[in-house]
UniProtKB/TrEMBL annotation:
InterPro entries: 2-oxogl_dehyd_N, 2oxoglutarate_DH_E1, DH_E1, KGD_C_sf, ODO-1/KGD_C, THDP-binding, Transketolase-like_Pyr-bd. This is 2-oxoglutarate dehydrogenase, mitochondrial. Belongs to the alpha-ketoglutarate dehydrogenase family. Residues 635-848 form the Transketolase-like pyrimidine-binding domain. Its EC number is 1.2.4.2. CDD domains: TPP_E1_OGDC_like. GO terms for biological process: tricarboxylic acid cycle. GO terms for cellular component: mitochondrial matrix; oxoglutarate dehydrogenase complex.
Length: 1022
């Protein structure tokens, strides 16, 4: 019903206009430039004059009851109703029935006009919409807020004399306050109920939610006073939890006086709030919670909520001994204590067991959000949590970062997408009203730091962090909301930060007034203890007993921490058991597939159901694909990829590909989801690879138009279970820099910092084909520059001992054949460790006539192309395709290249009859295939060595290749860096020219130069 919506401005304006006309309402002007919190409003009423409504054209009236000038309409309605009650809407029928009935039975109501009743309803509604703006949210009492005028009864024509009059309210088909079986109430009672419900320690924002059922559900919870009362037992538990939270910080502060811990002081109620939230969630069926949070209070959450052993926390806090035990388990670089993640089982108050995982995160605030959500979704898939009630994500935010970081919005916007939803994330904001040194008024343009969540129709509960019971109440309510409606909800704990940003920071430099107040402000614990003592719910002895218990345990754990030996096995979760660390050799496996299986699968994914009517062009594509499988020839990129996915599925793995427009494919090559041209129905061939295949086992999904958020999500997803091939594809490779934090902080360094493996595959379309600066380069150089393989040391390359990939932070490949693409994808799963894979994905090779493979290159048949000594595997390097022997002394030039430029070089070689030139493709750039490079160097002992690339000199692989290639050359006494000739574009600021003709000219020149008959001086195009 429209009148429940917040779009009440029409009504407000009408009412205000009407009152202003009558001269009874004055509003002072506000200088918005000064401060949005520092203006005041005065409402002045002129005696008892009730404003006289003015008639308005019927066309402007609605059933919404909102227009304060609707009396003419109402009278008409009443006449109609009296003639025939069915002639009006149910709500009016209800209204008139109640109103007329009451008017005749109650003397208090007898003087009430329809206008008064309407206005009273508007007042009630104003509280529901805006009551939160009058709520006492700031524990410090410093925030000066404008109390909305529509919370003033005077605005509606009510004066003090009306307070003891009885008014009719009706029931209005909505739950909560107005639904009570008591339609006649005094104005005083109504107002006090409204104040209690909406203007106490909790400010509820929920009237922006469009769904009436959800509004009513919340209204019922909010307006029922009994729900906020806790009994003595509960209060003792809450007190105990608050003591744990407070003493934990005190303890750290006394033991490590000069350490940064980003303490929770001022916001200690977060911990009991979380615990109660988790207990309630467990009661409602949640079994596992994935938590993401930044620095503030992280140690406290780890110790008290996640229950990471305190001795371990203290040991890490003391500087963290590097684990030396457990042979073969790796050490990594480690990270500061407030970034580390962990997981434990926590028993709940209701006797359940809750699995909690806190995800490790970088300093980059909020970057962990999508990772947590993705991991939660992964858990839901693997635990068959179809209705998403067993696994839940909880994100804890700072007020500054929640309002400021764009990834928050990106994450929120994944929340209701079919392939990304997790059935609701609970967001808790530790709103200490400052971000490092920045005040909210400099840090955000919105009233609340949580306003971004309104875009989602998420309810937002603002709560005074000094009122522990209110905190607990909204935390429980959030859990109930999430389990009932499977959607996001926000708890905004308004608190303060007792010390500086960290414990050694001086807050008085920048917030002197605030900190003067903080200095003498009692802690939440002191406030609660006082309250409970006053109520007589606990005694001083009770409090002392709990405090002593907590102190004793903290001290015991502190002593035990001195001998604590960290265990690395804590780091790998259960599913990953048996997976190898970089210190353990993992057997290299073949990736070829039995030819019969290949054919069978190939048919399944290329033949469409008889009754399906695809687009004409798609039909042709699929019949071409079927032919490829049938003949075993000319397999293209899309089929190579589909075969990789399908064979992995048949082997029982989960495959998930997400990104912008990935279903069809940006370049219209994939067509993994087909659309029936008559019915619009979708058909996904890869959903039918095995009988009764789980719908989600193969997931291909167009994502929201986000890079940071979606890549983070897939990264989190990939971390859940190693038996899944998770891929994220960028629309064009360069858009991946919108997700730079994910690459820098997680993908390239996550394993080293947090010892968590991921086999995520990132597909980045890359290649120079004249589409301009923004669509040519995936910034290959960046990924290579972040690779940690040593350019000057050749690692062990013997196939039985090789750990080169395991020891490297990620793999970067630029693959040039469909078969090799197939094998590199399969290799991700067919190994005993997981490592991120960055693929410079092709664009024009998708349809290039030469870029084809035969089915025999995919199989494992001895003697077939692709099968070498070990079997069929991904080729890290593809040697020259001319049948060269092991020693080719007549080859004058040895060109190394990577990616699609190979095909152009090969074509030019054919044209120029360059039989004395060898061209070899480095398919895996990182880690560098030293063994194969050396093999090729030896094959061409007299050749001049050329690196050819189409990217500018300061980009592409050149700077990565040179030191490594020269290391290999030095090992064979084949020269030094100076002997590597460069053929490629000149250094450039922009990645590529915007002029197609210039591109063509550059490309022709560099290819010709690489094949020229004269020796090559290092070449820079000018
Ligand atoms: C993306 C990012 N930018 C800047 C910083 C530096 N920084 C660390 S904490 C902080 C303030 C955070 O404020 P808020 O979100 O309110 O959390 P609080 O510290 O107040 O709990 C800043 C700016 C960071 N860690 N991450
Ligand atoms: Mg803050």
């Amino acid at each position: 019903m429209a009148w429940l919506r917040p779009g009440s401005c029409v009504a407000k304006l009408a009412l205000r206009r009407s009152l202003v006309r009558r001269g009874c309402y004055i509003r002072t002007c506000v200088d918005p430039g000064k401060n949005r919190y520092f203006h005041t409003t005065v409402v002045k009423l002129k005696d008892q004059d009730a404003p006289v409504p003015r008639s308005v054209p019927l066309s402007k009236l609605t059933d919404s009851f909102l227009d304060g000038t609707s009396s003419v309409y109402l009278e008409e309605l009443q006449r109609a109703w009296e003639a025939d009650p069915n002639s009006v809407d149910d709500s009016w029928d209800n209204f008139f029935r109640n109103f007329v009935g009451q008017a005749t039975t109650s003397s208090g109501v007898s003087g009430q006009t329809i206008q008064e009743s309407m206005r009273l309803l508007l007042l009630v509604r104003a509280y529901q919409v805006n009551g939160h703006r009058k709520a006492k949210l700031d524990p410090l009492g410093l925030e000066e807020r404008v109390i909305p005028i529509d919370l003033d009864p005077g605005l509606y024509g009510f004066s003090k004399d009306d307070y003891d009059r009885e008014f009719f309210l009706g029931t209005w088909r909505m739950l909560g306050f107005l639904s009570e079986n008591r339609p006649v109430q005094t104005l005083r009672y109504i107002l006090s109920r409204l104040e209690q419900a909406y203007c106490g320690s909790i400010g509820y924002e929920y009237m922006h939610i469009a769904d009436r059922e959800k509004c009513n559900w919340l209204r019922d919870k909010i307006e029922t006073p009994a729900s906020t009362q806790y009994n003595k037992q509960r209060r003792e538990v809450i007190l105990d939890r608050l003591i744990w939270s407070s003493q934990f910080e005190n303890f750290l502060a006394t033991k490590w006086t000069a350490a940064k811990r980003f303490g929770l002081e001022g916001g200690e109620t977060l911990i009991p709030g979380m615990k109660e939230m988790f207990d309630r969630a467990a009661d409602l069926g949640v079994e596992s919670i994935v938590i993401g949070m930044s620095h503030r209070g992280r140690l406290n959450v780890l110790g008290n909520v996640v229950r990471k052993p305190l001795r371990q926390i203290f040991s890490e806090f003391s500087g963290g001994t590097k684990p030396i035990d457990e042979v073969g388990l790796y050490t990594g670089t480690g990270d500061v204590k407030y970034h580390l993640g962990t997981s434990y089982d926590r028993p709940t108050r209701g006797g359940k067991n809750l699995h909690l995982s806190l995800v490790a995160n970088p300093s980059h605030l909020e970057a962990v959000d999508p990772v947590v959500v993705g991991k939660t979704r992964g858990k839901q898939y693997y635990s068959n949590d179809v209705d998403r009630t067993k696994n839940m994500g909880v994100l804890i935010h700072g007020d500054g970062s929640f309002a400021g970081q764009g990834v928050v919005y990106e994450t929120l916007h994944l929340s209701a997408l079919p392939n990304y939803t997790t059935g609701g994330t609970i967001h808790i904001v530790v709103n200490n009203q400052v971000a490092f040194t920045t005040d909210p008024k400099s840090g955000r343009s919105s009233q609340y730091c949580t306003d971004v969540a309104k875009a989602l129709d998420a309810p937002i509960f603002h709560v005074n962090g000094d009122d522990i019971e209110a905190v607990v109440h909204v935390c429980e309510l959030a859990a109930e909301w999430r389990q009932t409606f499977q959607s996001d909800v926000v708890v905004d704990i308004v608190c303060y930060r007792r010390f500086g940003h960290n414990e050694i920071d001086e807050p008085f430099f920048t917030q002197p007034k605030m900190y003067k107040v903080i200095r003498s402000h009692p802690s939440p614990l002191e406030i609660y203890q006082k309250k409970l003592l006053e109520y007589g719910h606990v005694t001083k002895q009770d409090i002392e007993r709990i405090q002593n218990k907590v102190n004793t345990i903290l001290n015991e754990e502190f002593i035990a921490s001195k001998d604590y030996v960290p265990k690395r096995r804590d780091w790998l979760s259960a599913y990953w058991a048996g997976f190898k660390s970089p210190e353990q050799v993992s057997r290299i496996r073949n990736t070829g597939v039995n030819p019969e299986i290949l054919k069978d699968i190939g048919k399944t994914i290329t033949i469409l159901p008889d009754n399906f009517k695809p687009h004409r062009a798609v039909k042709k594509i699929f019949s071409d694909r079927a032919k490829m499988i049938e003949t075993g020839e000319g397999i293209d990129w899309a089929v190579g990829e589909a075969l990789a996915f399908a064979t992995l599925l048949v082997e029982g793995n989960h495959v998930r590909l997400s990104g912008q427009d990935v279903e069809r494919g940006t370049f219209s090559h994939r067509h993994s989801v087909l659309h029936d041209q008559e019915t619009g129905k979708k058909y996904c061939p890869l959903d039918h690879v095995i009988t009764n295949q789980n719908e989600e086992m193969f997931t291909v999904s167009n994502s929201s138009l986000s890079e940071f958020g979606v890549l983070g999500f897939e990264l989190g997803y990939s971390m859940e279970n190693p038996n899944s091939l998770v891929l994220w594809e960028a629309q064009f490779g360069d858009f991946s820099n919108g997700a730079q934090v994910m690459f820098d902080q997680f993908l390239s360094s996550g394993e080293a910092k947090w010892l968590r493996q991921t086999g995520l595959v990132v597909l980045l379309p890359h290649g120079y084909d004249g589409q301009g600066p923004e669509h040519s380069s995936a910034r290959l150089e960046r990924f290579l520059q972040m690779s940690d393989d040593n350019p000057f040391a050749i690692p062990e390359m013997d196939p039985t001992l090789r750990k080169q990939i395991q020891e490297c932070n990620w793999q970067v490949v630029n693959v040039t054949t469909p078969a090799n693409y197939f094998h590199v994808l399969r290799r991700q799963i067919h190994r005993e460790f997981r490592k991120p894979l960055v693929v410079m994905a092709p664009k024009n090779l998708l349809r290039h006539k030469e870029c084809k493979s035969n089915l025999s290159e995919f199989d494992d048949v001895q003697g077939h192309p692709g099968f070498d000594k070990q079997g069929t595997r991904f080729k890290r390097l593809i040697k020259d395709q001319n049948h060269h022997s092991d020693l080719e002394e007549g080859i004058r030039r040895f060109i190394l290249c990577s990616g699609k430029v190979y095909y152009e070089l090969d074509e030019e070689r054919k044209k120029s009859d360059g039989k004395d030139v060898a061209i070899c493709r480095v398919e895996q750039l990182c880690p560098f295939p030293y063994d194969l490079i050396e093999r090729e160097l030896k094959r061409y002992p007299n050749a001049e060595i050329v690196w050819c690339q189409e990217e500018p000199m300061n980009m592409g692989a050149y700077n990565y290749i040179v030191p490594r290639l020269s290391t290999a050359m030095k090992a064979l006494s084949r020269g030094t860096t100076d002997d590597i000739k460069y053929v490629g574009r000149a250094p450039s600021a922009a990645t590529a020219t915007g002029f197609y003709s210039v591109h063509g000219q550059e490309q022709t020149e560099l290819v010709q130069k690489a094949l020229q008959s004269e020796r090559i001086e290092t070449y820079i195009h000018t």
